[in-house]
Protein backbone atom coordinates (compact mmCIF):
# COMPACT_ATOMS: atom_id res chain seq x y z
CA UNK A 1 0.00 0.00 0.00
CA UNK A 2 1.29 3.46 -0.97
CA UNK A 3 1.04 6.59 1.16
CA UNK A 4 0.37 8.62 -1.99
CA UNK A 5 -1.79 8.35 -5.04
CA UNK A 6 -0.49 5.55 -7.31
CA UNK A 7 0.80 6.77 -10.65
CA UNK A 8 -1.14 5.10 -13.47
CA UNK A 9 -0.13 5.01 -17.11
CA UNK A 10 -3.06 4.32 -19.41
CA UNK A 11 -1.37 2.78 -22.44
CA UNK A 12 -3.36 2.87 -25.68
CA UNK A 13 -1.96 0.82 -28.54
CA UNK A 14 -3.39 2.16 -31.79
CA UNK A 15 -3.20 1.16 -35.45
CA UNK A 16 -5.38 2.82 -38.09
CA UNK A 17 -7.71 4.01 -35.33
CA UNK A 18 -8.55 7.52 -36.61
CA UNK A 19 -12.29 6.95 -36.11
CA UNK A 20 -12.10 5.71 -32.53
CA UNK A 21 -9.02 7.11 -30.81
CA UNK A 22 -10.53 10.43 -29.74
CA UNK A 23 -13.56 8.68 -28.27
CA UNK A 24 -11.35 6.29 -26.30
CA UNK A 25 -9.47 9.20 -24.74
CA UNK A 26 -12.70 11.04 -23.86
CA UNK A 27 -14.22 7.91 -22.25
CA UNK A 28 -11.41 7.42 -19.71
CA UNK A 29 -13.27 8.23 -16.47
CA UNK A 30 -12.35 11.56 -14.88
CA UNK A 31 -13.18 10.06 -11.48
CA UNK A 32 -9.83 8.24 -11.59
CA UNK A 33 -8.21 11.48 -10.40
CA UNK A 34 -9.70 10.87 -6.93
CA UNK A 35 -7.47 7.84 -6.39
CA UNK A 36 -4.71 8.04 -8.99
CA UNK A 37 -2.26 10.31 -10.72
CA UNK A 38 -3.00 9.46 -14.35
CA UNK A 39 -1.17 9.96 -17.63
CA UNK A 40 -2.29 8.67 -21.03
CA UNK A 41 0.25 7.36 -23.53
CA UNK A 42 -0.89 6.68 -27.10
CA UNK A 43 1.48 4.66 -29.27
CA UNK A 44 0.64 4.95 -32.97
CA UNK A 45 2.09 1.88 -34.66
CA UNK A 46 2.92 3.37 -38.07
CA UNK A 47 -0.74 3.90 -38.96
CA UNK A 48 -1.59 4.64 -42.58
CA UNK A 49 -4.48 6.97 -41.70
CA UNK A 50 -4.94 10.04 -39.46
CA UNK A 51 -4.46 8.20 -36.16
CA UNK A 52 -1.45 10.29 -35.15
CA UNK A 53 -3.16 13.57 -36.08
CA UNK A 54 -6.28 12.65 -34.11
CA UNK A 55 -4.15 11.53 -31.16
CA UNK A 56 -2.11 14.73 -31.28
CA UNK A 57 -5.31 16.75 -31.38
CA UNK A 58 -6.57 14.88 -28.28
CA UNK A 59 -3.36 15.70 -26.46
CA UNK A 60 -3.75 19.43 -27.17
CA UNK A 61 -7.50 19.79 -26.77
CA UNK A 62 -9.91 19.19 -23.94
CA UNK A 63 -10.78 15.60 -24.83
CA UNK A 64 -9.23 14.24 -21.62
CA UNK A 65 -9.10 15.17 -17.97
CA UNK A 66 -5.54 13.86 -17.92
CA UNK A 67 -2.30 14.71 -19.73
CA UNK A 68 -1.87 12.83 -23.02
CA UNK A 69 1.39 11.98 -24.73
CA UNK A 70 1.63 10.55 -28.24
CA UNK A 71 4.46 8.41 -29.66
CA UNK A 72 4.67 7.49 -33.34
CA UNK A 73 6.53 4.43 -34.61
CA UNK A 74 7.91 5.10 -38.11
CA UNK A 75 8.07 1.33 -38.63
CA UNK A 76 5.47 -1.03 -37.26
CA UNK A 77 6.56 -2.69 -34.02
CA UNK A 78 3.54 -4.99 -33.75
CA UNK A 79 1.03 -5.42 -30.96
CA UNK A 80 3.58 -6.89 -28.55
CA UNK A 81 6.34 -4.54 -29.62
CA UNK A 82 4.23 -1.51 -28.72
CA UNK A 83 3.48 -2.94 -25.30
CA UNK A 84 7.21 -3.32 -24.70
CA UNK A 85 7.71 0.37 -25.47
CA UNK A 86 4.85 1.37 -23.19
CA UNK A 87 6.05 -0.81 -20.31
CA UNK A 88 9.58 0.52 -20.64
CA UNK A 89 8.19 4.06 -20.61
CA UNK A 90 6.28 3.26 -17.39
CA UNK A 91 9.40 1.83 -15.75
CA UNK A 92 11.64 4.73 -16.71
CA UNK A 93 9.08 7.38 -15.69
CA UNK A 94 8.38 5.84 -12.30
CA UNK A 95 4.74 4.76 -12.73
CA UNK A 96 3.18 2.26 -10.36
CA UNK A 97 0.55 0.71 -12.64
CA UNK A 98 -0.01 0.27 -16.38
CA UNK A 99 -3.51 -0.13 -17.82
CA UNK A 100 -3.64 -1.44 -21.40
CA UNK A 101 -6.39 -0.30 -23.79
CA UNK A 102 -6.87 -0.90 -27.51
CA UNK A 103 -7.28 2.00 -29.86
CA UNK A 104 -10.29 0.49 -31.67
CA UNK A 105 -12.57 0.64 -28.61
CA UNK A 106 -12.77 -3.13 -28.15
CA UNK A 107 -12.39 -2.69 -24.40
CA UNK A 108 -14.47 -0.21 -22.42
CA UNK A 109 -12.43 2.52 -20.65
CA UNK A 110 -15.38 2.93 -18.27
CA UNK A 111 -14.27 -0.32 -16.55
CA UNK A 112 -10.93 1.15 -15.51
CA UNK A 113 -11.91 2.16 -11.93
CA UNK A 114 -13.08 -1.36 -11.10
CA UNK A 115 -10.12 -3.07 -12.75
CA UNK A 116 -7.53 -0.83 -11.10
CA UNK A 117 -8.97 -1.21 -7.61
CA UNK A 118 -7.45 -4.65 -6.71
CA UNK A 119 -3.97 -3.44 -7.63
CA UNK A 120 -4.41 -0.18 -5.74
CA UNK A 121 -5.30 -2.24 -2.65
CA UNK A 122 -2.30 -4.54 -3.16
CA UNK A 123 -4.51 -7.57 -3.77
CA UNK A 124 -3.00 -8.49 -7.14
CA UNK A 125 0.06 -8.01 -9.33
CA UNK A 126 -1.95 -8.21 -12.53
CA UNK A 127 -5.63 -7.89 -13.40
CA UNK A 128 -7.13 -9.46 -16.52
CA UNK A 129 -10.48 -8.26 -17.76
CA UNK A 130 -12.33 -11.43 -18.71
CA UNK A 131 -15.13 -11.76 -21.24
CA UNK A 132 -15.73 -15.35 -20.14
CA UNK A 133 -16.50 -14.95 -16.44
CA UNK A 134 -20.16 -14.21 -17.13
CA UNK A 135 -21.88 -17.02 -18.97
CA UNK A 136 -22.42 -16.31 -22.69
CA UNK A 137 -21.77 -12.57 -22.25
CA UNK A 138 -19.08 -12.79 -24.94
CA UNK A 139 -21.58 -14.17 -27.45
CA UNK A 140 -24.05 -11.45 -26.57
CA UNK A 141 -21.25 -8.98 -27.29
CA UNK A 142 -21.04 -10.35 -30.85
CA UNK A 143 -17.94 -12.49 -30.43
CA UNK A 144 -18.11 -14.97 -33.35
CA UNK A 145 -19.02 -18.48 -32.22
CA UNK A 146 -15.88 -20.08 -33.68
CA UNK A 147 -13.70 -17.55 -31.85
CA UNK A 148 -15.66 -18.09 -28.64
CA UNK A 149 -15.08 -21.85 -28.89
CA UNK A 150 -11.44 -21.35 -29.87
CA UNK A 151 -10.92 -19.06 -26.89
CA UNK A 152 -12.48 -21.63 -24.56
CA UNK A 153 -10.46 -24.54 -25.95
CA UNK A 154 -7.14 -22.68 -25.94
CA UNK A 155 -7.71 -21.45 -22.39
CA UNK A 156 -8.60 -24.97 -21.20
CA UNK A 157 -5.39 -26.39 -22.72
CA UNK A 158 -3.28 -23.60 -21.28
CA UNK A 159 -4.76 -24.03 -17.82
CA UNK A 160 -3.96 -27.74 -17.91
CA UNK A 161 -0.39 -27.27 -19.09
CA UNK A 162 0.40 -24.32 -16.82
CA UNK A 163 -1.49 -25.44 -13.69
CA UNK A 164 -3.54 -22.24 -13.90
CA UNK A 165 -7.22 -21.47 -13.31
CA UNK A 166 -7.98 -18.51 -15.55
CA UNK A 167 -11.30 -18.07 -17.33
CA UNK A 168 -9.56 -16.40 -20.30
CA UNK A 169 -5.96 -16.09 -21.45
CA UNK A 170 -6.82 -14.01 -24.52
CA UNK A 171 -8.26 -10.75 -23.28
CA UNK A 172 -6.27 -7.64 -24.15
CA UNK A 173 -7.74 -5.61 -21.31
CA UNK A 174 -4.99 -5.82 -18.73
CA UNK A 175 -3.60 -3.95 -15.71
CA UNK A 176 -0.06 -4.64 -14.51
CA UNK A 177 1.93 -3.43 -11.56
CA UNK A 178 5.20 -1.94 -12.76
CA UNK A 179 7.01 -3.79 -9.99
CA UNK A 180 5.78 -7.09 -11.50
CA UNK A 181 6.87 -5.99 -14.97
CA UNK A 182 10.37 -5.31 -13.68
CA UNK A 183 10.56 -8.91 -12.43
CA UNK A 184 9.95 -10.58 -15.82
CA UNK A 185 11.87 -10.46 -19.13
CA UNK A 186 8.97 -9.09 -21.22
CA UNK A 187 11.43 -7.56 -23.71
CA UNK A 188 12.25 -11.10 -24.95
CA UNK A 189 8.64 -11.77 -25.88
CA UNK A 190 7.12 -11.81 -29.33
CA UNK A 191 6.09 -8.59 -31.07
CA UNK A 192 2.92 -10.31 -32.23
CA UNK A 193 -0.50 -10.82 -30.68
CA UNK A 194 0.57 -13.82 -28.59
CA UNK A 195 2.66 -11.40 -26.50
CA UNK A 196 -0.29 -11.43 -24.07
CA UNK A 197 0.01 -15.20 -23.61
CA UNK A 198 3.76 -14.99 -23.08
CA UNK A 199 3.54 -12.29 -20.44
CA UNK A 200 0.79 -14.21 -18.64
CA UNK A 201 3.00 -17.30 -18.60
CA UNK A 202 5.90 -15.24 -17.25
CA UNK A 203 3.76 -13.83 -14.45
CA UNK A 204 2.60 -17.34 -13.52
CA UNK A 205 6.17 -18.67 -13.47
CA UNK A 206 7.31 -15.67 -11.43
CA UNK A 207 4.65 -16.50 -8.85
CA UNK A 208 2.78 -13.23 -9.35
CA UNK A 209 -0.85 -13.05 -8.31
CA UNK A 210 -3.22 -12.69 -11.24
CA UNK A 211 -6.86 -11.77 -10.67
CA UNK A 212 -9.77 -11.56 -13.12
CA UNK A 213 -12.85 -9.36 -13.26
CA UNK A 214 -15.67 -9.49 -15.82
CA UNK A 215 -15.73 -6.93 -18.62
CA UNK A 216 -18.29 -6.26 -21.37
CA UNK A 217 -17.54 -7.65 -24.81
CA UNK A 218 -17.37 -5.47 -27.88
CA UNK A 219 -15.87 -6.88 -31.05
CA UNK A 220 -14.21 -4.00 -32.89
CA UNK A 221 -12.20 -3.88 -36.08
CA UNK A 222 -8.81 -4.70 -34.54
CA UNK A 223 -9.50 -8.41 -34.60
CA UNK A 224 -9.28 -8.27 -38.37
CA UNK A 225 -5.52 -7.90 -37.99
CA UNK A 226 -5.27 -11.21 -36.11
CA UNK A 227 -4.80 -14.38 -38.13
CA UNK A 228 -6.69 -16.88 -36.01
CA UNK A 229 -4.92 -20.12 -36.94
CA UNK A 230 -1.42 -18.60 -36.75
CA UNK A 231 -2.32 -17.01 -33.42
CA UNK A 232 -3.51 -20.35 -32.00
CA UNK A 233 -0.34 -22.11 -33.17
CA UNK A 234 1.84 -19.43 -31.58
CA UNK A 235 -0.12 -19.53 -28.33
CA UNK A 236 0.10 -23.31 -28.07
CA UNK A 237 3.78 -23.23 -29.02
CA UNK A 238 4.64 -20.75 -26.26
CA UNK A 239 2.58 -22.65 -23.70
CA UNK A 240 4.11 -26.00 -24.62
CA UNK A 241 7.64 -24.58 -24.47
CA UNK A 242 6.99 -23.24 -20.98
CA UNK A 243 5.65 -26.64 -19.88
CA UNK A 244 8.60 -28.51 -21.42
CA UNK A 245 10.95 -26.11 -19.67
CA UNK A 246 9.27 -26.92 -16.37
CA UNK A 247 9.95 -30.59 -17.19
CA UNK A 248 13.62 -29.75 -17.95
CA UNK A 249 13.22 -30.89 -21.58
CA UNK A 250 13.57 -27.43 -23.13
CA UNK A 251 14.98 -24.05 -22.23
CA UNK A 252 13.92 -20.58 -23.31
CA UNK A 253 15.20 -17.49 -21.53
CA UNK A 254 11.75 -15.89 -21.81
CA UNK A 255 10.45 -18.34 -19.23
CA UNK A 256 13.45 -18.30 -16.92
CA UNK A 257 11.84 -15.95 -14.42
CA UNK A 258 11.01 -18.05 -11.36
CA UNK A 259 12.09 -16.43 -8.08
CA UNK A 260 15.52 -17.78 -7.06
CA UNK A 261 14.33 -18.72 -3.59
CA UNK A 262 11.62 -20.99 -5.01
CA UNK A 263 13.89 -22.92 -7.34
CA UNK A 264 16.49 -25.59 -6.67
CA UNK A 265 18.02 -27.77 -9.38
CA UNK A 266 18.56 -30.50 -6.75
CA UNK A 267 15.47 -32.37 -5.63
CA UNK A 268 15.59 -35.39 -3.34
CA UNK A 269 13.83 -38.28 -5.14
CA UNK A 270 12.92 -41.02 -2.67
CA UNK A 271 9.45 -42.10 -3.83
CA UNK A 272 10.63 -43.84 -6.98
CA UNK A 273 13.79 -45.33 -8.49
CA UNK A 274 16.54 -42.73 -8.52
CA UNK A 275 20.23 -42.40 -7.62
CA UNK A 276 19.06 -41.40 -4.14
CA UNK A 277 17.03 -44.58 -3.53
CA UNK A 278 19.75 -46.76 -5.06
CA UNK A 279 22.37 -45.14 -2.83
CA UNK A 280 20.20 -45.52 0.25
CA UNK A 281 19.73 -49.22 -0.51
CA UNK A 282 23.47 -49.89 -0.93
CA UNK A 283 24.93 -48.01 2.01
CA UNK A 284 25.00 -50.28 5.06
CA UNK A 285 24.07 -49.52 8.66
CA UNK A 286 26.55 -47.43 10.57
CA UNK A 287 28.96 -46.79 7.71
CA UNK A 288 31.15 -43.69 7.62
CA UNK A 289 30.22 -41.64 4.55
CA UNK A 290 32.10 -38.88 2.72
CA UNK A 291 29.64 -36.94 0.51
CA UNK A 292 31.56 -34.99 -2.14
CA UNK A 293 29.37 -32.20 -3.53
CA UNK A 294 26.74 -32.65 -0.84
CA UNK A 295 24.66 -29.60 -1.94
CA UNK A 296 21.99 -29.05 0.73
CA UNK A 297 22.95 -32.21 2.60
CA UNK A 298 19.77 -34.00 1.52
CA UNK A 299 21.37 -37.41 0.98
CA UNK A 300 23.40 -37.12 4.16
CA UNK A 301 20.24 -36.43 6.12
CA UNK A 302 18.58 -39.56 4.70
CA UNK A 303 21.57 -41.78 5.51
CA UNK A 304 21.83 -40.43 9.04
CA UNK A 305 18.13 -41.00 9.71
CA UNK A 306 17.62 -44.34 7.98
CA UNK A 307 21.06 -46.01 8.21
CA UNK A 308 22.52 -44.27 11.30
CA UNK A 309 25.60 -43.32 9.29
CA UNK A 310 28.08 -40.61 10.16
CA UNK A 311 28.32 -38.21 7.22
CA UNK A 312 30.97 -35.68 6.26
CA UNK A 313 29.87 -33.23 3.56
CA UNK A 314 32.07 -31.28 1.14
CA UNK A 315 30.83 -28.39 -1.02
CA UNK A 316 31.36 -24.72 -1.79
CA UNK A 317 28.41 -23.63 0.36
CA UNK A 318 27.24 -25.06 3.70
CA UNK A 319 24.30 -27.50 3.67
CA UNK A 320 21.19 -27.14 5.76
CA UNK A 321 21.82 -27.32 9.50
CA UNK A 322 21.66 -30.80 10.97
CA UNK A 323 22.00 -32.73 7.69
CA UNK A 324 25.65 -33.81 8.14
CA UNK A 325 27.91 -34.54 11.10
CA UNK A 326 30.85 -32.60 9.72
CA UNK A 327 31.26 -30.17 6.83
CA UNK A 328 34.22 -28.85 4.84
CA UNK A 329 34.01 -25.86 2.53
CA UNK A 330 35.91 -26.79 -0.60
CA UNK A 331 35.59 -26.23 -4.35
CA UNK A 332 36.05 -29.61 -6.04
CA UNK A 333 37.25 -27.86 -9.18
CA UNK A 334 40.38 -27.02 -7.17
CA UNK A 335 41.05 -30.71 -6.67
CA UNK A 336 40.40 -33.37 -4.04
CA UNK A 337 40.27 -32.16 -0.42
CA UNK A 338 42.71 -33.67 2.07
CA UNK A 339 41.17 -37.01 2.86
CA UNK A 340 42.13 -39.61 5.44
CA UNK A 341 40.83 -42.60 3.53
CA UNK A 342 40.90 -44.73 6.67
CA UNK A 343 38.18 -42.54 8.19
CA UNK A 344 35.51 -43.59 5.67
CA UNK A 345 33.77 -46.63 4.30
CA UNK A 346 31.86 -45.04 1.41
CA UNK A 347 32.44 -42.00 -0.82
CA UNK A 348 29.47 -40.44 -2.65
CA UNK A 349 29.70 -38.46 -5.89
CA UNK A 350 26.03 -38.12 -6.83
CA UNK A 351 25.49 -35.90 -9.89
CA UNK A 352 28.81 -34.16 -9.28
CA UNK A 353 31.26 -35.28 -11.94
CA UNK A 354 29.40 -33.44 -14.72
CA UNK A 355 30.08 -30.14 -12.91
CA UNK A 356 33.86 -30.58 -12.81
CA UNK A 357 36.15 -28.78 -15.24
CA UNK A 358 38.64 -31.67 -15.35
CA UNK A 359 36.81 -34.82 -14.25
CA UNK A 360 39.51 -37.27 -15.39
CA UNK A 361 42.19 -35.47 -13.39
CA UNK A 362 39.89 -35.30 -10.37
CA UNK A 363 39.14 -39.04 -10.53
CA UNK A 364 42.85 -39.84 -10.79
CA UNK A 365 43.64 -37.68 -7.76
CA UNK A 366 40.71 -39.13 -5.82
CA UNK A 367 41.81 -42.68 -6.51
CA UNK A 368 45.29 -41.82 -5.23
CA UNK A 369 43.77 -40.41 -2.04
CA UNK A 370 41.54 -43.46 -1.45
CA UNK A 371 43.97 -46.17 -2.51
CA UNK A 372 45.39 -46.85 0.99
CA UNK A 373 41.98 -48.02 2.21
CA UNK A 374 41.52 -51.45 0.66
CA UNK A 375 37.88 -51.75 1.74
CA UNK A 376 36.51 -48.34 0.71
CA UNK A 377 33.93 -48.05 -2.11
CA UNK A 378 32.58 -45.11 -4.11
CA UNK A 379 29.07 -44.55 -5.48
CA UNK A 380 28.83 -42.25 -8.49
CA UNK A 381 25.95 -41.06 -10.66
CA UNK A 382 25.56 -38.72 -13.61
CA UNK A 383 23.22 -38.03 -16.52
CA UNK A 384 23.30 -40.25 -19.61
CA UNK A 385 23.65 -37.91 -22.59
CA UNK A 386 22.82 -40.86 -24.87
CA UNK A 387 19.31 -41.11 -23.37
CA UNK A 388 16.44 -41.26 -25.87
CA UNK A 389 15.14 -37.91 -24.58
CA UNK A 390 18.36 -36.15 -25.58
CA UNK A 391 18.46 -38.00 -28.89
CA UNK A 392 14.93 -36.88 -29.74
CA UNK A 393 15.88 -33.30 -28.89
CA UNK A 394 18.89 -33.57 -31.18
CA UNK A 395 16.68 -34.99 -33.93
CA UNK A 396 14.48 -31.92 -33.55
CA UNK A 397 17.55 -29.67 -33.72
CA UNK A 398 17.52 -28.87 -30.00
CA UNK A 399 20.52 -29.08 -27.68
CA UNK A 400 19.99 -26.15 -25.39
CA UNK A 401 21.08 -26.08 -21.77
CA UNK A 402 18.54 -25.24 -19.09
CA UNK A 403 17.91 -24.97 -15.37
CA UNK A 404 18.22 -28.67 -14.53
CA UNK A 405 18.26 -32.14 -16.02
CA UNK A 406 20.92 -33.73 -18.22
CA UNK A 407 21.57 -30.41 -19.94
CA UNK A 408 21.77 -28.33 -16.77
CA UNK A 409 23.50 -25.06 -17.67
CA UNK A 410 26.06 -25.66 -14.89
CA UNK A 411 27.24 -28.94 -16.45
CA UNK A 412 30.67 -28.78 -18.05
CA UNK A 413 31.00 -32.42 -19.16
CA UNK A 414 28.50 -34.99 -20.42
CA UNK A 415 28.85 -38.77 -20.24
CA UNK A 416 27.51 -41.97 -21.71
CA UNK A 417 27.86 -45.37 -20.03
CA UNK A 418 30.92 -46.07 -22.14
CA UNK A 419 32.71 -42.76 -21.58
CA UNK A 420 32.14 -42.81 -17.81
CA UNK A 421 33.32 -46.42 -17.64
CA UNK A 422 36.51 -45.52 -19.50
CA UNK A 423 37.15 -42.46 -17.34
CA UNK A 424 36.84 -44.53 -14.16
CA UNK A 425 38.95 -47.44 -15.37
CA UNK A 426 41.67 -45.21 -16.74
CA UNK A 427 41.76 -43.37 -13.41
CA UNK A 428 42.31 -46.70 -11.63
CA UNK A 429 38.87 -47.75 -10.38
CA UNK A 430 37.40 -51.23 -10.60
CA UNK A 431 33.70 -51.18 -11.50
CA UNK A 432 31.64 -53.34 -9.16
CA UNK A 433 28.13 -52.49 -10.39
CA UNK A 434 26.51 -50.54 -13.22
CA UNK A 435 22.81 -49.65 -13.35
CA UNK A 436 20.58 -47.53 -15.57
CA UNK A 437 18.23 -45.08 -13.85
CA UNK A 438 14.85 -44.19 -15.41
CA UNK A 439 13.79 -40.62 -16.09
CA UNK A 440 12.13 -38.86 -13.10
CA UNK A 441 8.71 -38.74 -14.75
CA UNK A 442 6.86 -38.19 -11.43
CA UNK A 443 8.94 -35.05 -10.93
CA UNK A 444 7.98 -33.77 -14.39
CA UNK A 445 4.31 -34.79 -14.57
CA UNK A 446 3.46 -34.93 -10.89
CA UNK A 447 3.36 -38.03 -8.71
CA UNK A 448 0.27 -39.42 -10.43
CA UNK A 449 -0.73 -42.41 -12.55
CA UNK A 450 0.75 -40.82 -15.68
CA UNK A 451 4.17 -40.34 -14.10
CA UNK A 452 4.11 -43.79 -12.50
CA UNK A 453 3.11 -45.48 -15.78
CA UNK A 454 5.85 -43.73 -17.74
CA UNK A 455 8.35 -44.61 -15.01
CA UNK A 456 7.36 -48.30 -15.09
CA UNK A 457 7.60 -48.37 -18.90
CA UNK A 458 11.02 -46.72 -18.78
CA UNK A 459 12.23 -49.28 -16.24
CA UNK A 460 11.08 -52.14 -18.48
CA UNK A 461 12.99 -50.71 -21.45
CA UNK A 462 16.32 -50.12 -19.67
CA UNK A 463 17.38 -53.82 -19.64
CA UNK A 464 16.71 -53.97 -23.40
CA UNK A 465 18.97 -51.03 -24.31
CA UNK A 466 20.50 -49.40 -21.27
CA UNK A 467 22.44 -46.78 -23.20
CA UNK A 468 19.30 -45.63 -25.00
CA UNK A 469 16.63 -45.76 -22.31
CA UNK A 470 18.49 -44.95 -19.08
CA UNK A 471 18.19 -41.31 -18.08
CA UNK A 472 21.04 -41.51 -15.57
CA UNK A 473 24.06 -43.70 -14.92
CA UNK A 474 24.64 -45.28 -11.51
CA UNK A 475 27.91 -47.05 -10.67
CA UNK A 476 29.52 -48.55 -7.62
CA UNK A 477 33.33 -48.65 -7.91
CA UNK A 478 36.40 -49.46 -5.88
CA UNK A 479 39.83 -47.77 -6.14
CA UNK A 480 42.69 -49.98 -7.25
CA UNK A 481 45.82 -49.71 -5.14
CA UNK A 482 48.22 -47.18 -6.62
CA UNK A 483 51.91 -47.83 -7.20
CA UNK A 484 52.67 -45.51 -4.29
CA UNK A 485 50.25 -47.36 -2.01
CA UNK A 486 51.60 -50.73 -3.13
CA UNK A 487 55.13 -49.51 -2.34
CA UNK A 488 54.04 -48.31 1.11
CA UNK A 489 52.23 -51.59 1.77
CA UNK A 490 55.30 -53.55 0.67
CA UNK A 491 57.54 -51.44 2.90
CA UNK A 492 55.21 -51.89 5.88
CA UNK A 493 55.02 -55.62 5.29
CA UNK A 494 58.79 -55.77 5.03
CA UNK A 495 59.20 -53.95 8.32
CA UNK A 496 56.64 -56.20 9.96
CA UNK A 497 58.35 -59.33 8.70
CA UNK A 498 61.73 -57.99 9.78
CA UNK A 499 60.39 -57.43 13.29
CA UNK A 500 59.10 -61.00 13.36
CA UNK A 501 62.45 -62.34 12.21
CA UNK A 502 64.30 -60.29 14.79
CA UNK A 503 61.95 -61.56 17.47
CA UNK A 504 62.48 -65.14 16.33
CA UNK A 505 66.28 -64.68 16.34
CA UNK A 506 66.27 -63.38 19.92
CA UNK A 507 64.04 -66.22 20.97
CA UNK A 508 66.34 -68.72 19.26
CA UNK A 509 69.40 -67.05 20.84
CA UNK A 510 67.87 -67.22 24.30
CA UNK A 511 66.96 -70.83 23.80
CA UNK A 512 70.50 -71.68 22.65
CA UNK A 513 71.97 -69.94 25.67
CA UNK A 514 69.85 -71.95 28.08
CA UNK A 515 71.06 -75.21 26.56
CA UNK A 516 74.76 -74.50 27.27
CA UNK A 517 76.38 -76.74 29.98
CA UNK A 518 77.04 -75.10 33.26
CA UNK A 519 80.35 -75.34 35.02
Q: Briefly, what CATH class of the largest domain?
A: Alpha Beta
| Low-pLDDT segments, ≥5 res | none
CATH architecture of the largest domain: Alpha-Beta Complex
- By CATH's scheme, which homologous superfamily of the largest domain applies? Spore Coat Polysaccharide Biosynthesis Protein SpsA, Chain A
Helix content bin: 25-40%
Count of domains:
3
> How many strands, which pairing sense, and closed or not: the largest β-sheet?
7 strands, mixed
Quick rundown:
By secondary structure, this protein is of the alpha/beta class. The protein has helices at 21-27, 51-60, 78-92, 112-120, 137-140, 145-162, 178-182, 195-205, 228-246, 275-282, 298-307, 359-370, 388-395, 417-427, 441-445, 449-461, 466-469, 483-514, and strands at 7-14, 37-44, 68-72, 97-102, 126-130, 174-177, 210-214, 288-292, 310-315, 326-329, 346-350, 377-383, 429-437, 472-479. The longest helix is centred in the last third of the chain and has 32 residues, at 483-514.
Give a written overview of the molecule.
With 519 residues, this protein is of the alpha/beta class. The chain folds into 3 domains: 7-260, Spore Coat Polysaccharide Biosynthesis Protein SpsA, Chain A, CATH 3.90.550.10; 275-479, 3-Layer(aba) Sandwich (Rossmann fold), CATH 3.40.50.150; 488-512. It has helices at residues 21-27, 51-60, 78-92, 112-120, 137-140, 145-162, 178-182, 195-205, 228-246, 275-282, 298-307, 359-370, 388-395, 417-427, 441-445, 449-461, 466-469, 483-514, and strands at 7-14, 37-44, 68-72, 97-102, 126-130, 174-177, 210-214, 288-292, 310-315, 326-329, 346-350, 377-383, 429-437, 472-479. Helix 6 (145-162) runs parallel beside helix 9 (228-246) and helix 12 (359-370) crosses helix 14. The chain starts with 6 loop residues before the first strand and ends in a 5-residue tail after the last helix. The model has no long low-confidence stretch (mean pLDDT 90).
Amino acid sequence: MLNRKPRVLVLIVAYNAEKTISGIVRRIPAELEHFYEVEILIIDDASQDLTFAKSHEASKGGDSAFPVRVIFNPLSRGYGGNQKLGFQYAIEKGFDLVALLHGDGQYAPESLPDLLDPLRKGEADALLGSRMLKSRSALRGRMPLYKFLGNKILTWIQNKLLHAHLSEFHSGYRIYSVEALRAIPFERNSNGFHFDTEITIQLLIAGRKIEELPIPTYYGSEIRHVKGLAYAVNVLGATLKARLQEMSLFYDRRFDCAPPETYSPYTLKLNYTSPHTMTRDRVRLGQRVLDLGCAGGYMGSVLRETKHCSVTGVDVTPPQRGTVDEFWIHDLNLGVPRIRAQDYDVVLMLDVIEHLNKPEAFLEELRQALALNTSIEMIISTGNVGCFITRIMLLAGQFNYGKRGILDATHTRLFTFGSLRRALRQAGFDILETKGVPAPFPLATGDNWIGRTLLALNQCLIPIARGLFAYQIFMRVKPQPSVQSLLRIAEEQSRAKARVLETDEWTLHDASASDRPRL
